[in-house]
Predict the 3D structure of the following.
Amino acid sequence: MKRGTPDATELAALTAVLLTRARLPHPPTTPTPRPTWPAPSYRVPRDWRH
């Protein structure tokens, strides 16, 4: 077999994989909503630094 030239078995396997993937449901196109609460503040009080 020459490189880049699939034999019948490899071509059949590739075809099966592509057909299976084509039948899978597509993921939703809408992004997942982000939480609306504010991000936590990680500032340390000045007394804790010394």
Q: What stands out?
A: The two ends are 72 Å apart (CA to CA). The mean pLDDT is 77. The helical segments are 8-23, 46-49. The first helix runs from residue 8 to 23.
